[in-house]
Known about the structure:
3-stranded antiparallel β-sheet; single chain; alpha+beta; about 25% helix; 3 helices
Amino acid sequence: MKDEQDKLSNKKVPQNNIMTSIDSFFSSSPIKGMLQQMDNFFGHAFTEASLPVETRETSGEFIVICKLPGIKKEQITIETFDRYLTIGVKNEEQLETIDESTSYISNSYSMKHQKRTIPVPPYVKLNALQANYRDGLLQIRIPKKNIKQIKIDD
C-alpha cells in the first residue's frame, strides 16, 4: 500500500499539461462557438440601449444635450421626478409589403423605446426647466437656484 502511494506521489502531472487541456477544451468547436456567441451578445446587445447625453454647466444654468437624429418631436418625452430627469424616445415603424404576383400581403410592426435617466444637481430649479428640439438636437436648460451672498461683519 505504501509502495503504491509512493508511486502516485512521484508521478506529478505537469501544470503545463493541465493548461494545455483547458485551452484545448475552450478552443474546441462547440465551446468556442458558444463563447463567441456570448461575446457577441454582450458586446453588441447594449450599444443602442442608451441615448447619447452630454451635460454642461454655466454660471446660471445646468444644460442637458441629447442627439436624436431622425426623431420627431412627438416621439420624445421628458419627465422629472425628485432629483432625476428622464428622456424617453418611442419609435414605432409599420411596414406593409404587397407581392402582386402571389397576392401576398405582409405587415410588419416594430416598436423601440429608449430611456435615459440623468441625476441633476440639488442646486437647480427642476420645475423651471425649458426644452428645445431642433435639427435632431434636444437641449434642456435648467436654471440654477439663486445663490445668496452673505456679508461677514467685523
